[in-house]
Amino acid sequence: MQSTHGTHGVQTAQTADGAWHRVHPISPLVRGWLVLAGLLFFFIQSAGEDVVQVLFEGGQFRAARGLGISLAIFGGIFVLALIAFFLSWRFTRYRLTPETVQLHTGIIFRQRREVRLDRVQAVDLRQPLLARIVGLAELKFEAADGGSSAMALEFIKRDEAEALRREIMGRASGIQSGVDPDVAADPQARAVAGPSDPADPSGHPHPDDGRDLALEGAGAVVGQVGKGRSGLPEAPEQVMLQVPAGRLIGSVLLGTGMTTLVVAALSLGVVLGVIWWFNGQELPPEATRGVLLGSIPVAISSVGAVWSQFNSGYNFTVATASDGLRLRYGLLETSQQTVPPGRVQAIKVHQPLLWRPFGWHRMVVNVAGYGSLSEAADAKKSLVLPVGPFEDVLRVLSVVAPDPGVREGEEAAQIIRTGVVGSGEDQGYRHSPRSARWVDPLTWRRNAVRSTQTMMLIRGGRLTRRLTLMPHERVQSLSVEQGPLERRLGLAVLNLHSTMGPVTPGLRHADVSVALELFEQESAIAAVSRRMSDRNQWMRPEERARFERRTVEAVEKVEELSDERPSAVAVDSAPSPPQEPAR
Amino acid sequence: MSTMDRTPDAREADAAGQGIELHGVQWTPVSPKLIPARFISAIINTVIWTALFSVPLVLHLLGPWSGYPAWLAWGVPAVVLAMFLVNLALIPRRVRALGYAEREDDLLLRSGLWFRRVMAVPYGRLQYLDVKDGPVQRRFGIRTLEFQTASAATDATLPGIPAAEADRLREELVARGQTRLAGL
User: Which residue ranges run through the membrane (chain B) (predicted)?
Assistant: First the structure.
């Protein structure tokens, strides 16, 4: 580690030097500005009258005294708040060691947290509006504990945050070794890396020559890029797609939230109309008032929800780099997420009814550590495509699920397409038996499953279409369930348990024999899947090389074909080694 | 196998291949001591809840709530009591429907009388395993095992395991989990 910094280290590289650092001094203000704003508001509210009297109405003694008292009280609280802010800043320290990130917080009740770098599932960089104005950013780490963020450094300078993120991603994904015991212990990795070469320890073939150059001459990069001031340069990235603002607005307006709002408003109108009609074509004032008062909170919350959809989807960009999938979005508050490949546990492609004429889809994923759907922030983080045509779905899939595992002569894009829009038995989907029409009159031919060598594709929904993809090796546990009615009809439900997130893969009302067969098959695969067994690194060099090759190929393929015929887009452009997936 | 209780329709469905019976699985039933243990807990619950729901009835009979409709005063606790009695009556069969099977790579759990469920928890996926007991369970020398994977949906609890067997299972599963350790 020292070798990369010692010589080239410009001042920002100090964030990663293993010493203790403090967050930026004004960060408590950025975090707690609402408190101060609230104080100011109350002060103006209570003392405003006095101020007016003192200034414009000849300075009455009582008013001046009142003003003095208010000033003293609020000034005191204000100073106390500032002291609290100062102390909280003073007692917050972090440092990066070769294997962990440590954060100490708290004045009276202290907390010392340490996160192992190899357990980090994702690293996010978030900039709320105020932080953005002052050039600060929050750096968040997620570990697979299912709770809130494992650690959040709020706030540090944006440059520093980026350097730190790069450093952490680099160390966690094994780009940098030497200090890394896992890689050092792995003779293969060492052999590839070349133990005597500290400049490029990862040693895998780079698709991008500029990167190798960057690694060799980190000092030169400082001058060139201006960003790469820590030893590691930013991994080169390829933008896969960007969501245009117009499409985003359209999708929000036609989306589920907005539709609900419109339906609610219409039904309210109908109710009022009925009252109006039966009340002798006149509205009683209580009714109007009640309706108005009742609808204000609803309206505020719905406007908030719609706004947050728009804000979080604004300028949504999906890019890939060697350290994983990069998502950037946000209008006022911007975020930048990096999800290493192989950390995506399950994927859902989803199409609300009103998006159908436009061919739009939405995609969410489960990433361990991103938590549940319950909190809006978590739901936002799980989003990998707010709205996009089918080609965009394939683009994202080529990164989050690079190996569709289809057999020779099959077209992965066709299978996925059938999964999203299709019905019946096309492309090898097995749908519910005829007896299921009693319980699923509309969807029994949609509720279907298709198993490839690497994943399960579960589709469902007639009005709102859904397709869930889950790699076999990501199944944590599974269950097959049957109630009395299902028993009569010869049906069963198969649930695959994924990590916490918006995707809950489950096959509704399958034929009992199908459900049991899949249960046996999946439990066998889940039990023996040891792909990630003995490693904590994000990716091995050879894996990363493969990932990079695949994304390059997929992007090229998609770009080549997307202006021709959308259905011909192949996700599995690279010939996949057949023995690999089934293990 | 034979000790496992089923509803008649489940037996019929299994025979016709419509039930969720896995072939070739040797199920181990949980300890029959779970039945009295559950009876005790359920009776305590029944008494407490029936008493709570009888408060209006008592108030009605004693006078302060004399305006309260008598059918409601009698009806609510009666319904509650009936529900609990049905629950009590079903305990033995529900307990007999519980079972587990240690397979080579995973643990199978089964439960449910009418709403049946078979769950597979691969050893390599176990994040942790809890062995719990309460005062009633301790009296009967049984424990509850709780399995947790990285998924919150893994709702795998196995009540009514004799203490010795629980310890054996815990050690066995942890050992197997280590040899078959899998990442997320």
Answer: 39-59, 71-91
The minimum CA-CA distance between A515 and chain B, rounded to whole Å, is: 8
Q: What is the ipTM of this complex?
A: 0.86
* Per-residue pLDDT, A572: 39
Cβ contact, residue pair A513, B13, below 8 Å: no
For A264-287, give the DSSP string: HHHHHHHHHHHHHHHTTS---HHH
Residue A344 banded pLDDT, cuts 50, 70, 90: confident
Partner-chain contact A146 B150, CB within 8 Å: yes
Output A65-74 pairs: Cβ under 8 A, ≥24 positions apart.
A70/A43, A70/A46, A71/A47, A74/A39, A74/A42, A74/A43, A74/A47
Interface of A with B in 345-384 (CB under 8 A): 345, 368, 372
The domain ranges of chain A are 1-23+92-233, 244-313, 344-568
Which spans in B63-105 are helix H? 70-97
Q: Is A521 on the interface with B (CB under 8 A)?
A: no
The structure's pTM equals 0.73
CB A453 within 8 A of CB A405: yes
**CA-based nearest residue in chain A for residue B105:** A527
CB contact under 8 A, A144 and B150: yes
- Of A438, A507, A437, the C-alpha closest to A466 is A507
Test B119 with A479 for CB contact under 8 angstroms.
yes
The tokens for A562 are 């997307």
Q: In the predicted model, what is the mean pLDDT of residues B67-74?
A: 84
- Average confidence score pLDDT of chain A: 74
A478, A480, A499 ranked by CB distance to B184: nearest:
A499
Q: What is the C-alpha to C-alpha distance for residues B130 and B114, in angstroms, rounded to an integer?
A: 27
Helices (H) and strands (E) in chain B, counts: 6, 7
